[in-house]
Amino acid sequence: MAAAAQGDPARNTPGNMPGATSRPHAEDPDGPVDVVGRTSDDDSVAGPRGRADRPGLSRTVLSAADMNRVVSRMAHQVLEKTSGGDGVLLLGIPTRGVPLAQRLARRVAAVEGVNLPVGSLDPTMYRDDLRLRGVRPLEVTEIPECGVDGMVVILVDDVLYSGRTVRAALDALSAYGRPRAVQLAVLVDRGHRELPIRADYVGKNMPTSRRESVAVRLREVDGADAVLIVSADAL
Amino acid sequence: MTSVIVLRGVSPLGGDPRDLVIAGGRIAAVTPPGGGEHTSVVAEAADGAAGGTRRGPLIVDGAGLIALPGFVDLHTHLREPGREDAETVESGTRAAALGGYTAVFAMANTDPVADTAGVVEQVWRLGQDAGHCEVRPVGAVTKGLAGSQLAELGAMATSAAAVRMFSDDGHCVSDALLMRRALEYVKAFDGVVAQHAEEPRLTAGAQMNEGAMAACLGLPGWPAVAEEAIIARDALLAGHVDSRLHVCHVSTAGSVEIIRWAKAKGWRVTAEVTPHHLLLTEDLVASYDPVYKVNPPLRTKADTEALRAGLADGTIDCVATDHAPHAPEDKETEWAAARPGMLGLETALSVVIETMVTTGHLDWAGVADRLAAAPARIGGVADTVLDVAQFAQVGTPATLTLLDTQAQRVIDPAAFASRSTNTPYRGRTLPGVIRATFLRGRPTVLDGKIV
Amino acid sequence: MGVKRHLLSTADLLLDDALLVLDTADRMARVADAPVRKLPTLRGRTVVNLFFEDSTRTRTSFEVAAKRLSADVINFSARGSSVSKGESLKDTAQTLEAMGADAVVCRHSASGAPHRLASWVRGSVVNAGDGTHEHPTQALLDAFTIRRRLGRVDGLAVTIVGDVLHSRVARSNIWLLTTLGAQVTVVAPPTLLPLGIDGWPVGVSYDLDAVLPKSDVVMMLRVQRERMSAAFFPSEREYSRRYGLDADRAALMPEHALVMHPGPMVRGMEIASSVADSPRSTVVDQVANGVSVRMAVLYLLLGGGTDRETT
């Protein structure tokens, strides 16, 4: 078999082995490189490791405790805006949107005693930018038994950036049915939208330059909670 | 035509440098370097030129070049008549001369088949006209190579082509009785039957050497035993009727053993090996590129080693190219649809250097024997040395080639004289370049180019 | 495969490549459960089904897979086309180039034909069965089926029974299942095993009854009746008696063990109907899984950008 089409190394997830590409966020030592200059690519961002942790090159904008408070507030907002979570389905966008959705659900349960169904929705096959880099591994789509028809679906993701992931997710969602309403919850909104999309629930608005990247780290995926801004100089 | 030539400073058989003076198609004088131009033969030619009565002597600077007797190829497919798109006698003999050959045996599987005096004479005349080397037609053993009825072997033998070697090459004379008759019959004119040893029932649909590689690639296997069984049978027959048998393109270690045994019996069995079977192995088939498809197929490394050892110790008498030009449409196909065969004339010496000389199996006298003297003896070639010890002696035929053993080249089929490009060595760097070839005192190649 | 251009053989699939295909196929299988089964993923891509041998089942499977991913599908079969008028494979390749084929799914009676094709076209080539060489997507779907039914492939004992010599399915499965960690044993009369099989990473047995109790999976291969006339075995009856999977033999298998067949089956000779239709038979799953696996393969070959597009 011939070696294939590698994408632009600055965009592409490094690693020639499919095994390495299947979990780039968790295992990719060059994670920050992955997101530099990404203007029309994933909104979510790799958890930085290695260089990104060096002082002076990245700064922590949300600590673990901050993040906890932010998720709590978002849970309250969800309850408020959906009249106590009636008919709400939380769908996390892999990778980090899924544990965030689960956290939201746990907070909601703790506050109001309501157990919201949680699932995951992989928008990869609906992306409009598949040809801009090498093939992306698919993530799991898991629609809970309630289905999406007539539900208030809240899409949950870690970072909102260009808006293209959310657009793809909206398309993906329509394959599974017709929700009553779709809302969007993100931990970080870093600006630079390329599509008319906005979030209903925002953990933190975080103005950034395109030269910077935002790295969300979650205990479930990365072993610790934090949100970092990695400056271009670090790369 | 130049009649007097001085080859200055050449090393006959790789020995001490000498000047060889050629006149009248023969070696007229041999002197220490620098002496050739001062011989009386050269002086006379120079005087004649000055007087305008004849051409002056041609001086060839041969410093650093090895002189060997002109090579004889017992196994060449010139494709004419019938497939002139793949090769002609003209283009094939150009390729031969550039490869250091001064005589080639043109195989009978043309269209029409060379199974009559008429066809062999036609091929022979085409060779004469081309003039790049001697062309000795091989006559078919059976009519139309069909393996059922003897061709008119005697008529071909007494024709102008004076055929002495008969072969159904491409097909095996698989009928034991027919083979026995052919072996007996050619004794009348000291002929030899060259057998393409391939038991046809064991190779029906065969595509490559049978073994683990063929099993993986899903290609029907061509078992070594299909070759060895026929060689063993034919050796026994040749011994039984005391006839001359020549075994074409020996490809397996087992065949070498059987031939060694037959020779030990004192039977008149000779054998040839191709350059590609000395160098290449079946691993190349993994590409499914039919440029590596050949019959018999490329074998294993152990086979190439046994073949090299057999050629070194004389069990295998000579190297023969099985030069088999094919048009692109016969090779640029899926494997099974492709025709078997590879070009050989323009790369044979290089492959022999690579496999036999640099490995220490043969010295230059050995190369001269395996490429020139031995095949000349088997095929009955006149006007060349039949014993390497005679080479470059005064009075012997000036049929020789000069090679630069220090030079290397990257094989580029576009540069070949052959009309076809199906060389398995494309892009390979191989040692040795032919600089000049002389046929009975007449240059056919000078400065690496056809004269 | 995410980084390879063609799928020609399972022999050169690394473990990670193979797992990526199976994992991706899992994702694709879930799509089949969604109310809308069509994905826009390969919109604008062209997949050519180039079939020099008739195989409705494989061609249809690829066609469904490509269409579910929104690729344009062109069926180019040898029958009734210029190919049957003697056009060479190379000429056909050039025609496909002109059509702008992003992928060519090739079925050919000559071993290695897809390899040749791959050297003549810019698009990806998927081997859909070549001669007696390989049939990689069949093996991938077999492995996928085993994994779905038994939860894993690693560590399983897989027995492949029948005409291994002429079987591209056997070859592809042997390489793939071994890569995935299975222990493969082949069972056949010696005439239907290739010479040189001792160099393969498989166990060899001539005794089916001895192997069955130790098998987690038994894969039956098709035996063509014409092999009989070529003296590979004396008679259908004798073959069936020694190597056919009848109900009595199937009873020797462990409770959980699967029976697989790549189809089309020769019922009665190599497999009894009662076994082929039993709950341990995966014959029906194999068909459904074929679409998921072929979607995965097409996605992994065509789902990213080409060199030209990404740079």
Helical fraction of chain B: 25-40%
Full CATH superfamily name of the largest domain in chain C: Aspartate/ornithine carbamoyltransferase
Give the total of domains of chain C. Answer: 2
Task: Identify low-pLDDT runs of chain C.
Answer: none
CATH level-3 fold name of the largest domain in chain C: Rossmann fold
Low-confidence stretches of chain B: none
Count of DSSP H/I helices of chain C: 13
Measured by DSSP, the beta-strand proportion of chain C falls in 5-15%
CATH class of the largest domain in chain C: Alpha Beta
Query: CATH topology of the largest domain in chain B, anyone?
Result: TIM Barrel
Rg of chain C computed from alpha carbons, rounded to a whole number of angstroms: 19 Å
Give the topology, please:
The complex is a heterotrimer of chains A (235), B (451) and C (311).
Chain A: H1 18-22, H2 24-27, H3 31-35, E1 58-62, H4 64-81, E2 88-92, H5 97-112, E3 118-120, E4 152-160, H6 164-174, E5 181-189, E6 201-205, E7 213-217, H7 219-222, E8 226-230
Parallel strand pairs in A: 2-3, 2-4, 4-5, 5-6
Antiparallel strand pairs in A: 1-8, 7-8
Chain B: E1 4-12, E2 18-23, E3 26-31, H1 40-50, E4 58-61, E5 66-69, E6 71-76, H2 89-98, E7 101-106, H3 117-130, E8 134-137, H4 153-158, E9 165-167, H5 176-185, E10 192-195, E11 208-209, H6 212-217, E12 221-222, H7 224-241, E13 245-247, H8 253-264, E14 269-273, H9 275-279, H10 301-312, E15 318-319, H11 348-357, H12 364-379, E16 400-410, E17 429-439, E18 442-446, E19 449-450
Parallel strand pairs in B: 1-4, 1-5, 6-7, 7-8, 9-10, 10-13, 11-12, 13-14, 14-15
Antiparallel strand pairs in B: 1-2, 2-3, 5-16, 16-17, 17-18, 18-19
Chain C: H1 15-31, E1 46-51, H2 56-68, E2 72-77, H3 89-99, E3 103-108, H4 113-120, E4 124-130, H5 136-150, E5 157-161, H6 168-179, E6 183-187, E7 203-205, H7 208-211, E8 217-220, H8 226-229, H9 236-243, H10 247-250, E9 258-260, H11 273-276, H12 283-302, H13 307-310
Helix pairs in contact in C: 1-5, 1-12, 2-12, 3-4, 5-6, 5-12
